[in-house]
Amino acid sequence: xxxxxDKLHGxxxxxxxxxxxxxxxxxxxxxxxxxxxxxxxxxxxxxxxxFAGAGPDGEAxxxxxxxxxxxxxxxxxxxxxxxxxxxxxxxxxxxVGCMIGAAAAAGRAALFERLLFVGGSPRYLNDGDYHGxxxxxxxxGLYDGMAANFQAWAAGFVxxxxxxxxxxxxxxxxxxxxxxxxxxxLATARMIFQSDMRSVxxxxxxxxxxIQARRDIAVPPAxxxxxxxxxxxxxxxxxxxxxxxxxxxxxxxxxxxFERYLMPVGVG
Length: 268
What we know:
single chain, alpha/beta, Rossmann fold, seven-stranded mixed sheet, 7 strands, AB_hydrolase_1
């Protein structure tokens, strides 16, 4: 029987002395990494896959009991690492993919040499002096819009998240978002926006590099600062880019950071 890697459209490419595993964000799939994939392939082995509910036929791999929790997706990631017998890897996550990687590393730290978080947030709701960027009525309105008319909601959501007038990125994000079945997209959005992964982040012992776009409607810079302050030994880079998808809209801004944080691993 096919394992989790095959079921989630796993792809293994590239060459090098170390392995990078890519975890995409909400509304995208593994193709979101296309702008940086060639560079990664030239320097390391690269593993990518589609989280359950995303990508072609994503609903076939979605279990409403397992995948309404970030930890269920983290179990998928750990299953894949076990199947591929990679040993230690470097994990690069985007958006919710960051917290899926954090949950996996919290449980099996030895599998991860280091973590790179692009636009990650442990909590989207404001909470006292923690500024996540959203109040509950904001999120309730988002869920209501998704439930009432998914296509109309997406037409407004996509350009806001892309954040720049990049026609190709808007088209690609729309394509992958519409691959998601609307009820699964809604359940996934609730899972993400109602989550609170701060206790998990506080317990991380892996080296972490936090990368954040200068202006991002989904993740305020204060969130990146919180991550940096609560992960011992972490680094923080604010990229001169706008929008929540800098790996799609400004890959040239990320590749120098990948080179800085990945290449010492390959050399050493």
